[in-house]
Amino acid sequence: MTGVNDMMTKQSDDVIVKTLSRLLIPFMQVYALYVLAHGHYSPGGGFQGGVILGASIILFVITFGLDNALRKISERLNTIMCSSGVFIYAGIGVLCLILGGNFLDYAELDKILHVGIAQARSLGILGIEVGVAITVMGASLSIFLDIATGGELSSKEKKI
Amino acid sequence: MEVTILVQATDESFEILEDARERSRNVLDTAARLTSEVQSVQRKRVEAIFKGARQTKTEITRFAATFIILFGFWLLLSGHYDLFHISIGLLCCGLVSYGTHDLLFANPRAGDMRVIVKRFIAYIPWLFYQIILSNMHVAKLALGSGDLIDPKIVKFKTKLESDISMVTLANSITLTPGTITVDIRDGVYYVHGVSKQVLEDVMTGEMEDRVAHIFMEADHVYVQDTFDMAPVFVALK
Known about the structure:
The structure holds two protein chains of two kinds. Chain A is mostly helical. Chain A is 76% helix and 0% strand.
């Protein structure tokens, strides 16, 4: 693999960085999902949650190396997540359109959810935010991987 | 007549000698057997301890432990305790612990977790006291004439064994004002200090001893093994 930064493929040999990121990454991810799920009540939402989630995975790549990270999230899965987030977003919007309202008119979701208009709006917004978070996480990770590996990664996966 | 008595006496003495030899052999055999039994029990015990240290917890146990810790963290953050938010929390924590269950408990240890947590909590007030002490020292250095300021990097070999204890010591040193852990390479610490006194405080090794005590390392682990072995010897007696 030419052009790949050596730092990316091997593990960090610093015991402090390794141990602390091992202990922090799960809490970072739970915090990201908390920011995502409590976007109605507190600052945050889909984009912020997705960025924190992406950052936690980037920290994993920096600390434990690219190979270990790709074992958890392959580039293929990452691409699927990137596009499925957009699909969730647009899908909820179009669903509202089909049910007789405007694009992203969440009140119409009450016709299939039967939970009351206010609750339907809340759930609709949550669904949108989940879509945004997944896309932002996938996109930030894939930007990072592309910069870090100089675009070599895709060809390597195809060979295997 | 005298000769027969003499022969008889010799025979008897031989018999007595033979008997004594038999007995002593029995005693020695018994002793050897007991020793080997003790040794095998001891070996099994030590093997079990080391096996326990090496044995990775099963996936399920690790998943459950990670899940419980993360869900506690979620409840601490959330503040909304209705069914909807708690079910979202369960889902999110399940997802995260599925992805990261090999991170939090990567190196299972021989020591008792509850003891470690208890000792760690007891260690924090002492650390705060040290931070206040060196804070005042550094303030004195900053406000004084500057003669005492003498930045240096020292290195020392640690007796700590595991990653987590080394990181605890490194972060304790960095938290204390005036000293910073620059690097750890193969168990050798490189510590930067702002004056002679703070570096001497680090080199006394009191902090290292306390961290070793928390994680039951260096000499502490052997003391613990002796306590574990004691009931076995009592039972054999």
